[in-house]
Amino acid sequence: MALRSRVKFAKCQMLVTSFFVLLLSLAGASIVVLTHFGDHFTVISRAPLERSPFQSLDRWVFAVGIVLAGLLGLGAALSAAATVREAQGLMAGGFLCFALVFLALAQVAFWRLRNPTQVEDAVLDTYDLVYDQAVRSPLDTLSQELTAIQDTFLCCGKTSPFGLLGSGEATLCQGPEAAREDCLQSIRNFLRTHGTITSTLTSAGLALTVYAMLLSAFLWLAIHKGCGLDHKGGYSLTPRAHGYQCPEPSLFRQFQEAPVPRHPSEAEAIL
After folding, report:
1. Is residue 172 a contact partner of residue 157, using CB atoms and an 8 Å limit?
2. Closest among 198, 197, 208, 206 to 23, alpha carbons compared
3. What is the CA radius of gyration of the chain?
């Protein structure tokens, strides 16, 4: 009885965990789509540079994020279906999805710890390249891209480490734009906020996938051994007591009690 209660409790936990994993997959997919198609990152990635340090990183992050979100959603769906239907194969598929996502998220967390400023450096380097070329050629198309970046991040220019600006740099921020924040600081603050959200989702994904793997492994063993499950469609025959006869259905009993029609014999037919 205790084992049956533990299995039922594990089933409830698996359904709740699958629901939260599905929510996490939707949140991760939303963050990835907003990162790739949002104004702040789009205006950086579309800069017409020969060697943009951010474009390849942006494509890589988008592809990995969509794949991980899809695997999380698939694992949640398979685990929930396997829990309801007590299907061993579906539970194994859910465990495999959770294991793949866990390994990928562990690599992402390790990459974030080892290179915590790689995304920030790529975005700032792209802005520096656009800024330098726009200052050298004010009539070039990069000046329009620089203006779009500054309007998106609500910033203007960047502070010179020597405190002096050239003639081209001094004319970039005039009038109301001069009161805006330094672009390097504004971009850095935005990326750090975005990085905090990403790290939170990564940590939640690691915790949920580990817990989901433990539950799916336990339920897979329970289904395989047949312990504490409902066994839908399975019946057991018990020996009938001596001298006891099961009552027949009323419809069958009426057919037995009805008089049997008597066919006339040949002699009666001749008479």
Report:
1. yes
2. 208
3. 35
The pairs formed by 201-204 with CB atoms below 8 angstroms and a separation of 24 or more are: 201/24, 201/27, 201/28, 201/31, 202/105, 202/108, 202/109, 202/112, 203/109, 204/24
Q: Tokens 């959770």 correspond to what residue?
A: 98
Q: How far apart are CA 106 and CA 206, in angstroms?
A: 7
Residue 138 φ/ψ, nearest 5 degrees: -65, -25
Instruction: Compute the residue count for the chain.
Output: 271
Residue 165 CA, distance from chain mean position: 47
| Other CB atoms within 10 A of residue 225 CB | 10
* 143 against 28, higher pLDDT: 28
Locate 232 and state its tokens.
């839908």
Task: Select the more confidently predicted residue: 15 or 126.
Answer: 15
SS3 53: coil
Indicate the pLDDT class of residue 105, thresholds 50, 70 and 90.
very high
Helical segments of 115-182, H only: 118-136, 141-153, 167-170
**Beta-strand (E) ranges in 141-229?**
none
Q: What is the DSSP letter of 86?
A: T
Q: How far apart are CA 17 and CA 211, in angstroms?
A: 8
Residue 177 is encoded by which pair of tokens? 């734009």
